[in-house]
Amino acid sequence: MSIKSINWRGATCAVLAAALLTGIAGCTPVAVQGSSPPAGPIEAAAEPNWTSGGMVAAANPLAAEAGAEVLRAGGSAVDAAVAVQGVLSLVEPQSSGIGGGAFLVHYSAATGDVITYDGREVAPRGATADMFLDAGGKPLRFFDAVRSGRSVGVPGAVAMLELAHREHGRLPWRQLWRPGITLAETGFAVSPRLHEMITAVVARGSLPANSAAYLTLDGKTPRPVGSLLRNPDYAATLRRIAVQGAKALREGPIAEEIVSAVRADPMPGTLTLEDLRDYRPNRLEPVCSTYRVYLVCGMRPPSSGGVAVLSVLGILSHVDMAARGATTVAGWHYLIEAQRLAYADRDTYVADDRYEAVPIAGLLDRDYLASRAALVSPGRAMQRVEPGRPPGAQLRGRDATGGTTGTSHFVVVDGRGNVVSMTTTVESLFGSQRMAGGFFLNNQLTDFSFTPFDDKGQPIANAVAPGKKPRSSMSPTIVFRDGRFELAVGSPGGHAIIGYVAKSIVGMLDWGLTPQAAVDLPNVIARGLVVAETARMDPALIESLRAMGHEFRGGRSGGEASGIHAVRRLSDGRLEGAADSRREGKVVAVPYDSTR
Ligand code: GLY
User: Fold this and answer.
1) What is the whole-number distance in angstroms between the Cα of residue 226 and the centre of ligand 1?
2) Is 405 a catalytic residue?
3) Does the beta carbon of 403 lie inside 6 Å of ligand 1?
4) What is this structure's pTM?
């Protein structure tokens, strides 16, 4: 889809809708719901004179610096993304890595094209609908499944980056892995968060021998903060990837190591060399919708993220959120209710749409979302929230799976105005905890429903099947206004990602907050009960929401697992970034260089 094909000049949303639905050859229709028209006639701009410089916002300073180094060398946003992933996989291995999967939303300033890349893991041929059930037909305990070989999907992050680089890279592929190789060889200091996450997984039980040797001093004592950690195996793997590309993970010695790690006890998985060999990433149209004067674009299935964030916004488009600010009870009430409605639909209808008919257009249909918004009462929490029946939906059981916290999000804007918004994951902390080639293998398949039917016997859309991709909540997002890039945002956090991203967008666009202030807003996730960062909230606000009937669950599990990273382009053209203070991230600005 090209944002240049949209008549932004004085466009009403109906015109915008028509452009999106009919004007773009080969574009999968996207649903657009109503909102107020853009403010005044503004020429569509091709951004030929981009003078904003570049920016990287990522969850670890070493990774952000690696991306910035690539931008300084004249690299594209995708080039920088490769370097960021190469370093994150090393320094933040609890969250993402080359043994995992990712989604990337790309905006090309030259063409106006918005496209997404799908590097989601797939279930091996040997996967079965009952593989997460025990002999008695009961779901396995979650962490037993995580640590089993059955949880490991065919990794896709490197193959996805290779595809994106082929289409949008400027610097040679092999150059982009150098920061990761150098750091793996010379070593890096264990960060407080890495130490904390090692401590958390050690407390859960014994680790496989090679990951225990890597993460601990003696098999059980977590490596201390500040200690130097080297990873020569990972450096060797990156050297192969730098030369061979994603093929290095599809065949040969690293592929063989992956297979034997997956097939080891306890509960070996079925992954084969053929499964690895056959993996291909996808290039997909984004799912986009208008929100007030903006066009918001994200990932279509197998992620539920794009559809669910757009559902939240589509419901909120019936409310004047700007008049209800970030400190008001009404503002949070509507944000909570919109999430409850959007999660109910997302839990029920969204799965890998190569296997299930996902009613994307129905879920985002203007009239359907108006009917969902009409369920919200201004002064009282809804008593029960059920999934709706969007146009085109088949009856499906609701599925409560939603992922955990082993994910990372980063944003790159390059010196020509191209944008990458990428969310990348190994699923749980250190994925399955199984290592091969110096990196951790994902446990992404536990994002599938463990049971193929709900307790009423309805089939579950997100049930396991061979070759299928588990439903994700990852929501890398890019927002446009008047034919220009406006902002990019995303977060880790399992199913809560949808709430974190919606909150950040509302904070910036409706509540007029800076990116950092929007990211710093309390995280309030309403999938059933309200799970909130109560420590960041005014007690009087919580009391008022409780009095309206909202049931809170606060405390340590209060939605603090976000890692929201965002970049916004201000009205004067400057870029402003935000790194989530709940993690260790950093924003690095790369000044405009008129010689490039
Ligand atoms: N495993 C996190 C997600 O895909 O949403």
Assistant:
1) 29
2) yes
3) yes
4) 0.94
